[in-house]
Design goal:
This protein is an alpha+beta fold. It has two helices and six strands. A hairpin with a 3-residue loop joins strand 1 and strand 2. The longest helix is centred in the middle third of the chain and has 20 residues. The radius of gyration is 18 Å and the shape is globular.
């Protein structure tokens, strides 16, 4: 983990998200989706292949190390700073959209490139406060 030089903004929030707090899935449709709690990572087939192979390799190496965790220093389980293919799904997208699956409980999708974070309206307000109070 890197060294934080300066905290630009910080807001305390609930330790549980409203949406998909305990959800995990991997699906393929128009592209590959890895859902982890309230975050969705979208990948091309080549990116999915690279990630899958790297996770298998990293897990094998971790087992050979007898599963140390936490470890006092960083251990790279795969080659650090591996180069990915230039193909990306959403190279230049940053957006916020509202989904209405339940009219009484709108779900917000915050997109940053290939990552989507599912938020409640209250969590979106917290994120807005974070960005508004940022000192840069």
């Amino acid at each position: 983990m890197g060294h934080v030089d300066k905290m630009l903004s910080e807001v305390k929030t609930s330790d549980k998200t409203r949406y998909y707090n305990d959800f995990f899935s991997i699906e393929v449709c128009e592209n590959f989706h890895i859902h982890w709690r309230n975050t969705r990572l979208q990948l091309t087939s080549e990116e999915f292949k690279i990630l899958s192979e790297a996770m298998n390799e990293a897990y094998t190496r971790w087992e050979l190390l007898r599963k140390p965790y936490p470890y006092p220093e960083t251990i790279y389980l795969i080659k650090p700073w591996s180069v990915l293919p230039n193909e990306q799904l959403f190279k230049n997208e940053i957006s916020v959209e509202q989904q209405v699956k339940n009219p009484n409980l709108p779900e917000i999708h915050f997109h940053y490139k290939n990552v989507r974070i599912d938020l409640s309206l209250e969590e979106l307000r917290e994120l807005k406060k974070l960005f508004t109070e940022m000192k840069i």
